[in-house]
Structure formats: structure tokens, C-alpha cells
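TODO from last week: model RDM1 protein.
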Amino acid sequence: MAEVLEFRVPTGSAQTLLVWGLEPQPGLEHCLYLAFRKFGPLYSVRTHRNAAVAGPGYYAIIKFYSAGDASRAQRACNGQRLFQKSPLKVCVCIKQKGFQQQVFALNSNKCQELANHYLGFNGWSSRIITLQNISGFDAENEELGETLQKRSVKYLCAVEVTLPNHGIHTRGVALSEADVGNSEDPLELLAASRRVQKLAVGKALSSAFQKILLVVLENGKVAVEYNSTQEEPTDSLTEEELKGLVQV
């Protein structure tokens, strides 16, 4: 049976493992990461101290992107010592009915990590179509008889992601902005501009990945489909039109 993965933050109970019986030790989260990473890419590893009534020790919540990877990890690690003297207890988290979590897109770093694992480092590429500075003075506010001007740095970015082995091209467009405390300071303005540019590129890259579905087959092979439900009006524009696109 195939499993479909989106470039979204995993929220399913089948993707989440509860690990308890953990002994205190330095670098506990890193030990867990190394032990469970062999079963598939991990979204997060979080450790927590046991409640007082449960006695000393820790438990952990481990989130996989794939429910299949989580299931294999549970079967292989439950009752094993792994990196400590006493055996661990590992179970798949129980589904909570009637409770829906909001689904968020993965940030650009997590998107790249997931793409590298399932598609390979040479299985995808990205390029910036346009990165426009659309900054300006937002407003003038009068306070105590003084006129104040607040400078806002804005950048609009369009990115294309290409999967050459699957013949898929997707685009993402994003706007990012930030206020500059002292618009008269060129160094502060430059630092803010670089920060906003990086954020705009990252958001656009993440947006492009939202239109990709990874279909993981039982034999471990990966197929890719285009996620048309995430299409945006800008997807129909030509590159020339995208480069001339300005949103205020």
C-alpha cells in the first residue's frame, strides 16, 4: 500500500511515537535522534521529564514524516535497550477523536531535508525567477506635534522547483517585510534588507514544495504527483509576467 506525503508539518497520530523509560544522560535527544533516524527522516525529537508520580526519568515524543517509518521504528525498538541499560517502551500515539490540528507548511529547510531524502540531492533543483525590492515609506504618523516616518523593507520573490526525473515544475510566490528601527542608518537598512530577502526566498521555496506530493511505494520507490489543490493564480503567469509582478 502506497503512502502519500505532503511537505506539511506532520500532525497524524500514526506518525508520532511515544517513548518512555528513558534514563537521564547527557545528549539524550541526540541519542534518540541517532537511534530512530535510521528508520526514516524525523521532523522532531522532544524529551520531557516524567511527572513526579511517575518517578525519575524522561519520556520523548518523536515525529516522523511517514507513518510507515514510525510503525517500523516502533516494532524494532520497543523493548530494546538501544543506548541505555534498561529496555525502552515505544508505542504509536493513540488517535484523539474530535480534535483537529491546524496544518502548517514545512519551512524551507525542512522541505529541502525531506526532498533530499526521498528524491536525492540531485533529484531536484530550485532557482529564483525574481526577487523584487518593493519597499517604501508606509505611513506618516503625527504624535505630540512631531511627524514620524516608519521605514518598511519589503521583498517579493518567485521561485521555481524542478524535479527532472519526474518532469514536474512548480512555482511559489511570497512576500516578506520587516520594519527598520532607524531608516537613516545604512548598515541597519542593509541588514534588514538581507534578512527580508532570505525570508522571502525561503517562503517562496516552501510554497513551491506545497504543490508536490511524494508517493512512497511498498518497495521503497518514490513516485511524484502534482498537487493541483495548492495552485495559485500566479502559476498561470509567464516568467516575464512574474518578473513584472508587483504587490503593494
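Done. Residues 186-209 form the longest helix (24 residues).
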